[in-house]
Amino acid sequence: MSIDVSQRVAQIRTAEYGKDVRENLAGGIEDIADDVNDFETTSTQQQAQFEVSINSRQTNLENVFNQEIANQSVENPSNMETVAARTDNVNNTTYNTIGQRLDNQASHLADVVLVTWFGAKCDGITDNTIAFKNAFATGKEVIIPNTNPDSFYKISEVLIITNNVVGVGLPKIKMFPVNPQDTVNNAGKSQIFRAVNQINSKIKISGTYCIGNWDGISTITEHSHIIAVCASDNVEICNNIFETPQGDCVYVGAYTFDDTIKIKNTSDNPNIHDNIFINPYRCSVALVSSENPKIKDNQISKNNTFVSAIDIEPNNNDGTYIKNIEIENNIFNINNVITSILIVNKSANSIKDVKIKSNTFNTTGYGIRASDQSSNANLGNVEIYDNKYNGNNISSGFININCISDFIDIKNNKDIGIGATWFITQSNNINVEQNTWKSLDGVTDRLNWLLIGESPIIRVSKNDIYNCDNIDGALRIVGYDTTITKNVDITENNFYNVKRAIGIDNRTDNTLFQIEKLQIVDNSIDNYFDGIHLACNILDLIIKNQYKGIGVPVEYNSFFSYGTIASPEFYNISNDIYATAMPTSGTYTKGQVVKNINPVETGTSGNMYIVFGWICITGGTPGTWRALKILTGN
Fold this sequence. Notes:
Helix content: 10-25%
Structural class: mainly beta
Shape: flat
Number of helices: 6
Radius of gyration: 38 Å
Protein name: Right handed beta helix domain-containing protein
């Protein structure tokens, strides 16, 4: 780019006045700017034309390349197709030569076998047991192709696996046992797949549709599993459909079901995900002995009463245990089953660190039941987060938990339906936080939201509770006379449309239990019959809440005592109470205020006022009250 400024320079040099100098300087700058802008515009246009030209030439070249390939034949060969064949579009890999790509594929094929190579037929008639066994005996990855979508591969004995099993096209494999028996080992012969003592390999079973031999009636055995993982680590089971086994869809433990001696006492790191489990006789997944099992993103349906959908249960006194369990994002569609997830410890063995998160329970039974039946305090550290429970049976609720030794944390779950009470008993260090419990519209006869019994440390906070018509209290805490609860903290909960918000009492009418410190603070209680009912011995008491509705804020009976003196005058109570009139029933302490929820201006001109509320000047039942009037200035 060249800019001629000589004329402007001459004018500046000969100018006699400063005004002329400034004018020529400004004009010169404008000339330069104009030339620069013209240059940039021209350059941009040329760049755009260049790009259009390049793109057009590239497109034309690709069209010619593709046309050459399309026109290729034996009589008219083309080198372009040879070049294109170097690229594996499935794996997005380009090789330097076709030979390199073919060598790579040949190397992979050398590590796999197809069951059809050994004579297997997907016709529903041929017994493919021998063909499958011969394929698995190679020790290579076994591919099972779906050669007949309208039929299945028939087998009659268990298949022992040592490498991956890959179904292509979701092939059906169906068990027809020759002679099903009721003993454990004989029933094991009717399993479909079994991995035994596989601790160094990473076996993956995927893409199959396996059908067990349960007819929906028989109870002859419970050990004919679809997959038995026995003393084997790092087994992944994914993207399968498992249907109607006369046992579990997936068993994870150490027992080998034959004379094989197990080389370890657990099956660690199983990863069971993205499967569909349909109505097993026993369980969809049974964990008997394992560290770090993961059960995630499965669809689980079960329609019979035996055991549960997921069973976490070590054997009795054989050294089995379960640790670090994750059950996450599964969908349970369960009918006629006591519980979706069952956690049971029966012996000196242990179950530790259980995380149950983001599951959906559509069920007529409980969502989760857990108990330590060993009396050895070996069931501990349970976290239940972000689950949704759609209960449709008034006799079963979201959780029923007993004897958690370390801590139990229940947070941000939603229970919306007609299900029954959440039970937590004889457990240490309970935290129930940020949950929602709501009856369906028109349902008013649900039982308590939460019943906690005989537990030393209890914290219930920031929960939203709707529509509970139970006289024992939406939240009920109970104990026996021998029970000593150290600390109960009930804070920042919202109780909407409840008959009684909180009931704290003994299990029977003639016993007491003791709470060392009880704090009921900053709760909102709406539309109550009575807000809080006390019938126990409390050494340190703080009650400070907000009440809206009708009824008595705090009620107690003859079993209540505050330290050594049973008198309401000794309550440390400072409550926000709302009503439409001065209290005429209930027990109140001197200084308590009931706020007027419907104030109306009244009086004569110049002396208009509203009734802000009423204050108790003498404690009693209901005590002596006076109106709190505030002049409005009108």
